[in-house]
Amino acid sequence: MLGHERSGAVDTGRGFLDIGFDSLTALELRTRLTAVTGHRLPPTLVFDYPTVAAVAEYLHTEFFAAPDASGPELDEATAEELFGILDNELGLSG
């Protein structure tokens, strides 16, 4: 959405506003995630969960109420892994 060539170009701990999001791109991300998940997400998603890691944790909590002990901790996932999942789900990977 922001024109980065690879997902690892963005630090998952940096705020969306810090990496160039504004209200329009925030709504675009929310709309894309809503389309992929089939669940209506709040229009304030990026502002309520201001980092990629926070959004990932929110989505994980929403869709998987009981944490899967065998899966990786979101805090331990690399930026490449998080963006890879999003790129794959949004159909952006080639």
State the shape: globular
Number of helices, counting only DSSP H or I runs of 4 residues or more:
4
Q: Secondary-structure element sequence? A: HHHH
Q: What value does the average pLDDT take?
A: 77
> Termini separation (Å)?
15 Å
Counting DSSP E segments of at least 2 residues, the number of strands comes to 0
Given as residue ranges, the uncertain stretches (5+ residues, pLDDT < 50) are none
Indicate the radius of gyration in whole angstroms.
Answer: 13 Å
Biggest sheet, in brief? none
Return the structural class. mainly alpha
Helical amount: 40-55%
Percent in strands:
under 5%
Protein architecture, described:
With 94 residues, the protein is mostly helical. It is 45% helix and 0% strand. It is built from four helices and no strands. The protein has helices at 23-37, 45-48, 52-63, 79-89. The radius of gyration is 13 Å and the shape is globular. The model has no long low-confidence stretch (mean pLDDT 77).
